[in-house]
Design a protein that fits this description.
- The chain is built from eight helices and 16 strands.
- The chain is an alpha/beta fold and 319 residues long.
- It folds into two domains: 170 residues, Rossmann fold (3-Layer(aba) Sandwich); 56 residues, Hypothetical Protein Ta0175, Chain: A, domain 2 (Alpha-Beta Complex).
- The protein has an eight-stranded mixed β-sheet with strand order 9-8-7-6-5-14-15-16, sandwiched between helices. Strands 1-2-3-4 form a four-stranded antiparallel β-sheet, with no helix packed on it.
- α1 packs parallel to α8.
Length: 319
C-alpha cells in the first residue's frame, strides 16, 4: 500500500507519494519516492529522492532548457551557506555526512557565500568540508587545502567607509573586498556611491546589504574556481535560497532552490527541492548519487554493487 500526502503552500499544492520500504516492509515503514510541487496546474518538480528506479527527474525550467537529472553529468555541487546549507550558522551532521559522501564519489563541493572567511570560520570551523570556497559574494577565493586567499577585485576606497561611519550606519563589516551592513542602510550606501562617483553596486541578501565593485557576484567568483578544477559550468549543480543566488544558479548547468528559498528564486530554478536548508541539499545529493548509480547499473550492471533490500543504491565512481 502507498500513502499520498497533499499539502497547500500558498498558490502551490505539494503532493508527496510514499512507497513501502523494501520487499519485506514492516507496518508503518515508508520512504518518500516522489515529491511533486504544482503551482497553477504547472508541475515544478518531480523528484525521486531515493534512487531513480521509477524514472528520471523531470524538473521545471524557467528561461533555459529543461534538464534531466538522469542524464546530467554532475561533477560538482556549488552551494550557498546561510539558509541553504546552514540554519542560523549551524549545519546538521546529516548534511555534513551527505557532503562527505558526495566528495567520496569523486565529485567536488564548492561553497559560495556572502560571508567573510573570518566570519565563516567562527560559525563553521570545518572549512575543509569543501574543495574551494567563494567568499564575500564572489570577491574572494579561499582554498582550504593550503588556506590560500585570492582577492578577485579591489575593495571600496576608505572614503566610502568614512561616509557610512559619518552617517551613523551601524553595523559596518569589512572584508578583503566586501563592505556589508543591513537594511535600510542601502539608501546611505547609494548616496555615498553617487556623491563620491564610485563604480560600486549594492546587493541584497534577506535583510543584509552588501557593497561590492560593479560586476562582482557569485557567478564571477565561481568561474575561476571551476577553471582551476577543470570543470565546465554545465557539469555543476548550483543550489541557493536568496536574492544574491540568482547569478550563481543562472551560471550552473542545473539550478536548485531549497524549499525555504524566496519565491523569485524558486521561479528561476530548474528544481525546487522538497526539503528546506540542509535537508534539501542532502536530498539533492542523494538524488544525484542515486541516479548516477542507477544509470551505471543500467549501462553496466557489473559496475555497481547489489543493494540491500530497501536501501538506495550508492554511486561508487564519478561520472
Amino acid at each position: 500500500m502507498s500513502l499520498l500526502s497533499i499539502s497547500v503552500e500558498g498558490a502551490a499544492v505539494r503532493l508527496s507519494l510514499f512507497l513501502p520500504l523494501g520487499s519485506r516492509r514492516r507496518s508503518g515503514e515508508y520512504r518518500q519516492k516522489r515529491s511533486l510541487v504544482r503551482r497553477d496546474g504547472e508541475e515544478l518538480l518531480s523528484m525521486t529522492t531515493q534512487g531513480c528506479d521509477d524514472g528520471p527527474l523531470n524538473p521545471h525550467s524557467a528561461g533555459k532548457a529543461s534538464h534531466d537529472l538522469w542524464q546530467f553529468p554532475c561533477s560538482a555541487l556549488a552551494t550557498d551557506f546561510d539558509g541553504t546549507l546552514a540554519t542560523d550558522g549551524a549545519v546538521e551532521e546529516a548534511t555534513r555526512a551527505a557532503l562527505r559522501k558526495f566528495r567520496a564519489s569523486g565529485r567536488k563541493v564548492i561553497l559560495v557565500t556572502g560571508r567573510r572567511i573570518t566570519d565563516l570560520s567562527e560559525v563553521y570551523p570545518h572549512l575543509d568540508d569543501f574543495d574551494a570556497i567563494v567568499a564575500e559574494n564572489g570577491a574572494l577565493l579561499y582554498w582550504p587545502g593550503d588556506r590560500r586567499e585570492e582577492p578577485l577585485a579591489d575593495a571600496p576606497p576608505a572614503e566610502f567607509v568614512d561616509f557610512l561611519v559619518k552617517a551613523n550606519v551601524r553595523p559596518i563589516e569589512r572584508g578583503r573586498v566586501i563592505v556589508a551592513t543591513i537594511e535600510p542602510h542601502q539608501h546611505v550606501a547609494l548616496e555615498a556611491i553617487r556623491k563620491l562617483g564610485l563604480e560600486l553596486q549594492v546587493i541584497f541578501n534577506k535583510g543584509s546589504v552588501m557593497i561590492l565593485p560593479s560586476g562582482v557576484n557569485k557567478a564571477t567568483g565561481l568561474k575561476p574556481v571551476l577553471k582551476a578544477l577543470g570543470i565546465p559550468p554545465k557539469e555543476v549543480i548550483g543550489v541557493g535560497d536568496a536574492e544574491n543566488d540568482h547569478a550563481l544558479l543562472d551560471f550552473c548547468g542545473l539550478s536548485a532552490a531549497v524549499a525555504n528559498a524566496l519565491p523569485a528564486l524558486k521561479q528561476r530554478a530548474s528544481v525546487v527541492l522538497a526539503g528546506a536548508r540542509g535537508a534539501g541539499v542532502a536530498e539533492l545529493i542523494e538524488s544525484v548519487l542515486g541516479c548516477a548509480s542507477d544509470r551505471m547499473m543500467k549501462d553496466d550492471p557489473a559496475s555497481a554493487p547489489n543493494p540491500m533490500p530497501g536501501e538506495a543504491r550508492r554511486a561508487e565512481a564519478p561520472l
